[in-house]
Structures are given as C-alpha cells and as structure tokens.
Design goal:
By secondary structure, this protein is an alpha/beta fold. The protein contains 19 helices and 14 strands. Helix content is 43%, strand content 16%.
Length: 487
C-alpha cells in the first residue's frame, strides 16, 4: 500500500481532502487536511437536481488545487468519492467525464448505503471501544445511518434529508411550516432495529453542536473525537441554538461558515434522535474519508488486529527507535500483577498503564530535560484514535507525574476526567518504578509481594539497582521495598 494516500470527499456542501501517511503495516496518521466550501449541490434541488455550471466550475477549481497538493505531498494514491449531490444529479456522468478529461482524475460515485457503511467502518475502528450504536452522518443532501451491534456493522440506510436540501426547498422559500409533512414519511423509512440509546454523531453539523457544548461546559480537552454527552442534559442548549438569530450564533461557538446550515442540521438531528430513542451521543471526528482509507488499509477483514492501536503505533514508529533493551512496559505489567492484592485496581486500567509505559520515553525525542512533560503533550496531541478522553488524560498525567508526590492543584485542568487519587497514586508509582528499573539495563527482574513488602530481585545474580532513586518514587501506601532479597 502507498505510504501517502489522499482521500477526497466530494460532498453536497463542501469538498475536503485528507492526506494519510502510513508509518508501518497498520500505523498511520493524518498529515494535513484541505477544505473548500464549493456547494456542489447549490441550486440543484430547485432545478431537478441538475448540477449547476457555477457549482461545477467551483468543484473543478477545488479538485485542480487538491491534485496539486497531493502531488506536492507525494501521494501515490488519490481516492475521490462523490456522494449525495453527485448521485442524485441527472448530469453526474457529464461532470465526472469533465473532471477526467480536464484533470485526469477519477471520481467514484457511491450509493447511500456504501456511504453509510464507510462512516460506520471509521467509527467502529477509530473510536474507543463500544458494542452497540447507530451512526448518523448528516450531509448537505442526505443523512446516513449505520447500525452496529456486538462490534459488527449490521445494516446501512440513507435518507434524502440534508442541510442544503432543506435550506433550498423550505428555508429559502419560507416554507418551514411544511417541514414536518416532508420529513415524517422519510423518518418512517428507518427500521425499528436502528433504535439505540447510543448515537454516533458524524459530520460537520453534529461536530459543531458538540463543539458548542464543550465550550459551554469549559470542557478540559479540545478533542472533538470521542467527546460524549447525554442528550437530555444538553437538549436545552441545542434548542437555544435552533431558536437563535443568525447574528448571535457566534455566541454559541458556531463558526461563520456554518451559520446558514446549522439550524437545518439541528432540526434533522433532533428528529432522528427522537425516532431512535437516543440518550447518549458519541462524537466522531472521523467519517467517510477515514472509512475509504481504512477499507484500503485493512482489507479484507476491515478491522485492526486485536489489541492494536494505530495512533499508539504511529507515535512509536515516528518518534521512538526500536529498542530491544527497553523493558518499561514489561516491568509495568509484572508490577501491576504482583501488587494486585494491595492496589485492588480494576484490570481495565492495565491498558492505560501499558500505553503510558510504551510512550513515557517519547518526550526524549524533543528534549531530555522535562521529557515527562513533553511525553504528556505527545499523548494529548497524538493519541487520536481508539482511546477515550478519560484514558488519554490518565495516560498523559501519570507520565507527567514522573513518580513525584501528587499535587492536586496540578491535576485541576483535567480533574473531571481523572480517576480517584488512589488509582492515580498507584499507577504513578508502578509506571515510574518500572521506568527507573528499566534504566538499570536489566532484562530479568522478579517481583514478589509478601506482608506489604515488594521484593525486587533476580534468581541468579545480584542486581545493580539505583536504590536511592527507587526510594524517591512516591509510594501510594505503606509498602516497603526490598532489594536483592528473596521473600
């Protein structure tokens, strides 16, 4: 597979191109993203869905620019996908031929079900784990829903309701009173099996809503991907946006380029959420573009290997040289298991500890001094996929603590996302004990706990351990350390 791949989403409202770069077999990251608000579907819904010349010219200009960018980035592959506006248009073949003739670019027009599947594929692989959910991707011309049960895509549907479509057919003509009459029969197309308490929000309108909620709540992270909220808790705020005057939308954190479509998006969202009996919203920062890339990357199974995370692997590939003598992760797991009867922490925290152990040295790539703080920034900025916000914040903070006594004031920015003091203290202790022991260049160390004493030894030789450094690590309980003695 190509090292760099460009994916272009030719939507009804905007055209976006994302460039992905592989770092290893499955490790990858996004290098850049370009967007042009072309409105390919503009004025088409009032004219028999025919693409208008002005819109086609804008799209052509955007694709010409995107091609130049992809060449500049040395992309070996470029996928261009046409969605609702293109598949609805009677003159779509003429436009596709025009782009092929003038720019030598191939556009593949996909149907609604495939568009829905691609969004579901991206969410399933790149959100933190979930079992059941229904994805909703509100676009300019259509809305796609994908049903996921037991971590598998079960069914996909597409509805002919989108922000630009509603804008031109109803809002621009002052016919909003007819909206319910238009949308209710369409909502009846949604099978009952799609009803789900979890709704995965895909697309610009739904991300804009999540961003507004994050700002209102002074949320401690800026990451939209995997942000979650309860719909009933935020319904009043969402309805305020729906009722607000256009010139006051900025007060809700809505960007100017969303002013003319956000209310249409909210209207569709609330209608479908009610139909699905939605309670919890999971925001997805990924969608059709990532779905296209993953379908190419992961074929034929379309899933990452078990216990594999593409973001963690990508960070390791780019910034950590393979070091067979680095045993921090191994020691951390051994210590967690050996101390289990004392710390009594749930096993699901092992994954966060393991990720922290794998990435705690990454800050040294930037600067040895304050490397723990640099590592924390790498985690918060680069661990994009497959981890919840709580997991990312926990991983970053136990790395940043660096074995020192916890000062609650320093945790304040992320306090609402962190576990209790007991868990933090133990993970901080275990990680930095493992990190310090790794610096001894010993590969074989035994850990045994007896009568609240942790025995650190080797069966066959005496270990040269930095005892003073080990004793400086803040202990979470009255546990003693014994060196080079068997219990």
């Amino acid at each position: 597979m190509a090292k760099k791949t460009a994916v272009v989403d030719l939507g009804s409202n905007s055209i976006r191109m994302v460039i992905f770069e592989k770092t290893s077999r499955y490790g990858f990251y996004t290098t850049c993203e370009y967007k042009r608000k072309v409105r390919l579907g503009e004025n088409s819904y009032n004219n028999g869905k025919i693409l208008q010349e002005e819109a086609m010219q804008k799209a052509e200009n955007a694709l010409r620019f995107f091609k130049q960018c992809s060449l500049k980035h040395k992309c070996k592959k470029i996928f261009i996908i046409g969605t609702s506006a293109l598949r609805d248009a009677p003159n779509s073949k003429e436009f596709i031929k025009r782009i092929k003739t003038k720019l030598n670019l191939n556009i593949r027009c996909i149907d609604g079900k495939e568009e829905s599947y691609l969004g579901g594929l991206a969410a399933l692989n790149l959100l933190s784990p979930f079992k059941d959910a229904t994805t909703l991707d509100i676009g300019g011309g259509s809305s796609e829903l994908c049903l996921i049960k037991n971590n598998k895509i079960v069914s996909c549907i597409s509805l002919d309701i989108g922000t630009v479509r509603l804008k031109e057919l109803f809002f621009d003509k002052g016919k909003t009173k007819s909206l319910d009459q238009f949308i209710d029969p369409i909502l009846k197309q949604i099978p009952k099996e799609f009803c789900n308490h979890n709704l995965i929000a895909i697309g610009g309108s739904l991300r804009a809503i999540s961003n507004s909620i994050m700002q209102k709540n002074s949320y401690p992270l800026k990451n939209l991907h995997d942000f979650r909220y309860d719909l009933e808790e935020e319904r009043e705020h969402i309805e305020k946006i729906l009722e607000a005057k256009v010139d006051s939308l900025a007060n809700f954190g809505i960007k100017k380029d969303r002013f003319d479509t956000i209310k249409k998006g909210i209207f569709i969202f609330l209608k479908i959420a009610q139909k699905l009996n939605t309670k919890h919203i999971i925001t997805s920062g990924v969608g059709i573009r990532e779905g296209i890339y993953l379908k190419d990357l992961l074929r034929p199974n379309n899933r990452f290997p078990v216990n594999f995370n593409p973001s963690l692997k990508s960070l390791q590939d780019r910034f950590l040289q393979e070091d067979k003598n680095n045993h921090t992760a191994k020691f951390a797991m051994q210590l967690f298991n050996a101390l289990k009867n004392i710390h009594k922490i749930h096993d699901h925290y092992k994954q966060s500890l393991l990720a922290a152990a794998k990435l705690c040295h990454i800050g040294e790539y930037l600067n040895f001094y304050f490397s723990n703080e640099h590592s924390a920034h790498f985690v918060l900025g680069g661990l994009n996929y497959g981890f919840s916000h709580k997991e990312k914040v926990l991983i970053a903070n136990i790395i940043k603590l660096n074995g020192k006594k916890i000062n609650p004031y320093n945790l304040e920015p992320h306090k609402q996302l962190l576990p209790n003091f007991h868990i933090l203290s133990w993970l901080n202790f275990i990680l930095n004990l493992a990190k310090t022991l790794n610096n001894t260049n010993e590969s074989k160390i035994n850990f045994t706990v007896l009568d609240n004493t942790l025995y650190i030894f080797n069966e066959f030789k005496e270990l040269n351990l930095p005892k003073e450094e080990l004793k400086k690590i803040a202990k979470p309980a009255s546990i003693a350390l014994s060196f080079n003695q068997k219990p």
